[in-house]
């Protein structure tokens, strides 16, 4: 488990160099008092582990830039991949003081060793496209959702894909959440594509998406709290947490209306990863209990894909 005495920890992503797991995570000092303000007092922390359980905390990986820059206010959730030349690429979310943190963009940093990161200039590498995505002040959502980039290779070897937390410009405002999509051939130049899911599936947003092949079948994870579910879902008594849907293809289309909860809201921002024995495990951050926000990352929870029931915990998950 990753627990810091003086900082809250929440969204995270991992890189595996074959010997060591590198964990990158959002962190904010508890000295600010109010955990709801953590998003605006954030840096990207770094820890390493051999077993996904015992973590050694290292100096932070990234922090907001000096003004003016697209990320001079916040640096938020992302993912890491390794290019063909061995360079590690971290894609992350940035917001600026210029829009009071309300417009989200995707940025890039690179590293040779997963420790020292170099930002790719002061400009974002990818912004939302108004042809397919809701922009700031064009909808009834408080911000422009364009965050949580999850990057992976094209299954056929044709470049790279990015999944993004985004919203459609059409449909009921509380059901506009979609899985955004972008493509690149070189990890540097990106072009937004139409979303890989449709609006109207009961979610205001689908956060921290991740797609993997588990036991031969594509699995999409995303997270959504009860407060961001569509009104009809809330009235039906549904709750939030980590959700899973199993599309027929790694690149979708995805149908979140068929998603089921993998965990309850006490766990959030779930990620699955293979341990050294080759088993799939889930990590998530501990979100809430009766005493409020917790802010720490769990030990690995073993999961498997049951042909009859899909992805599930090998032991009962918090539900």
From TrEMBL:
Name of this chain's protein: beta-fructofuranosidase
Protein source organism: Thermocatellispora tengchongensis
InterPro entries per UniProt: GH32_Enzymes (IPR051214), Glyco_hydro_32 (IPR001362), Glyco_hydro_32_N (IPR013148), Glyco_hydro_beta-prop_sf (IPR023296)
Presence of keyword Hydrolase: yes
Family: Belongs to the glycosyl hydrolase 32 family.
Presence of the UniProt keyword Hydrolase in the record: yes
GO biological process, one term: carbohydrate metabolic process
Gene3D superfamilies: Glycosyl hydrolase domain, family 43
Keywords: Glycosidase, Hydrolase
One Gene Ontology term of the molecular function aspect: beta-fructofuranosidase activity
């Amino acid at each position: 488990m990753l627990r810091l005495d003086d900082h809250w920890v929440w969204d995270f992503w991992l890189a595996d160099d074959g010997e060591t797991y590198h964990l990158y995570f959002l962190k904010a000092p508890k000295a600010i008092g109010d955990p709801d303000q953590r998003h605006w007092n954030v840096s990207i922390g770094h820890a390493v582990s051999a077993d996904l359980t015992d973590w050694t905390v290292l100096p932070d990986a990234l922090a907001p830039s000096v003004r003016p820059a697209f990320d001079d206010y916040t640096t938020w959730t992302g993912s890491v991949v390794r290019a063909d030349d061995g360079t590690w690429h971290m894609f992350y979310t940035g917001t600026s003081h210029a829009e009071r943190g309300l417009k989200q963009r995707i940025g890039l940093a690179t590293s040779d060793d997963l420790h020292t990161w170099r930002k790719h200039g002061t400009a974002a590498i990818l912004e939302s496209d108004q042809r397919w995505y809701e922009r700031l002040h064009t909808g009834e959502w408080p911000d422009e959702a364009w965050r949580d980039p999850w990057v992976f290779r094209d299954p056929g070897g044709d470049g790279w894909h990015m999944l993004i937390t985004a919203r459609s410009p059409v449909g009921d405002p509380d059901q506009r959440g979609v899985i955004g999509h972008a493509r690149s051939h070189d990890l540097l130049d990106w072009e937004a594509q139409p979303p890989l899911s449709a609006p109207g599936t009961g979610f205001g947003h689908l956060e921290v998406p991740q797609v993997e092949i588990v036991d031969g079948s594509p699995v999409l994870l995303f997270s959504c709290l009860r407060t961001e579910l569509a009104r009809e879902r809330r009235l039906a008594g549904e709750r939030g947490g980590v959700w899973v849907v199993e599309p027929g293809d790694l690149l979708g289309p995805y149908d979140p209306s068929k998603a089921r909860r993998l965990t309850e809201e006490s766990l959030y921002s779930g990620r699955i990863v293979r341990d050294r024995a080759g088993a799939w495990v889930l990590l998530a951050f501990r979100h809430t209990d009766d005493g409020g926000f917790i802010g720490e990352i769990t030990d690995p929870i073993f999961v498997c894909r049951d042909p009859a029931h899909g992805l599930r915990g090998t032991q009962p998950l918090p539900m």
